[in-house]
Amino acid sequence: MATGPMLDEGDPTAMALGYVASAARVDKSKYPNFVEGQNCANCVLYLGAAGSEAGPCPLFAGKQVAAQGWCASYVRKTT
Ligand code: SF4
């Protein structure tokens, strides 16, 4: 399931959603909703296997997002 190239931060959709491959680099002035500890791995939309480095996200068809990444569409996964 984990196939496809890594999503580039410069991808137009990625830029529109403020995607960064490392949540440590989220622009907090632009995205004040960001909370420390949020990342793709604990986002409900992340389709990567538990513990994976990267995985698909339906918002970026055909690409993989970094487990440590983040974007403005983040929704916390409830377990
Ligand atoms: Fe990562 Fe979730 Fe944004 Fe997809 S929607 S890029 S999994 S934070």
Please tally the β strands and state the result. 2
Helix content: under 10%
Radius of gyration: 11 Å
Indicate the overall shape: globular
Largest sheet: 2 strands, antiparallel
Mean pLDDT: 95
Bound molecules: iron/sulfur cluster
Low-confidence runs: none
Strand content: 5-15%
N/C terminus separation? 22 Å
The neighbouring-strand order within the major sheet is 1-2
- Pattern of helices and strands: HEE
- Helix tally? 1
Helical/strand content category: little secondary structure
Q: How does this structure look, described?
A:
This protein is low in regular secondary structure. The protein has one helix at residues 12-16; strands at residues 54-56, 64-66. It has a two-stranded antiparallel ribbon. A hairpin with a 7-residue loop joins strand 1 and strand 2 (64-66). The longest helix has 5 residues, at 12-16. The mean pLDDT is 95. Bound molecules: iron/sulfur cluster. The site of iron/sulfur cluster has 13 residues, from loops.
Strands, helices and their partners?
Layout: H1 12-16, E1 54-56, E2 64-66
Antiparallel strand pairs: 1-2
The chain binds iron/sulfur cluster.
